[in-house]
Amino acid sequence: MTKHFRTAAAAAGLLAALALPVASSAASSTSGSPQQYTMQTRFADEYHGGEWDATMVLTVYPNGIVQGTYRPQDGGWKSVTGGVDGQQIWLDIGMMHPLHLTGTFRNGELRTIAAIPGPDTYTLESTSVTRSG
Predict the structure, then answer these.
(1) Closest CA to 127 of 38, 40, 37, 36
(2) 10 in a structural domain
(3) Residue range 86-103: average pLDDT?
(4) Count of domains for the chain
(5) Does the residue 12 lie in any domain?
């Protein structure tokens, strides 16, 4: 009877161990400290004149999470959330119906395209960058 109980307990333990999720390398590679970037940006429509200038402050965490603020020159601010994987970045600016951007982020230089329906192509790019952290 004891032998059957030990066998059942060992099998249950093995099944429980196999059921646990395995930590991914991206989730476990959180060494290092967050990097903060303060950048002047311009948001422009490729086919129309003019641009909207702003200051964007982004904190990039070692696990790829991006958080920050977007402050247009005409006042106010919007929250920024996103992620970075290598040199690829995606950002959402604003909470309600956020502006979704995808592009590249190399050494603090931001180059993105906005996901807006229609024929126009909107870009958000950094014009100057200060890095801290």
Answers:
(1) 40
(2) no
(3) 96
(4) 1
(5) no
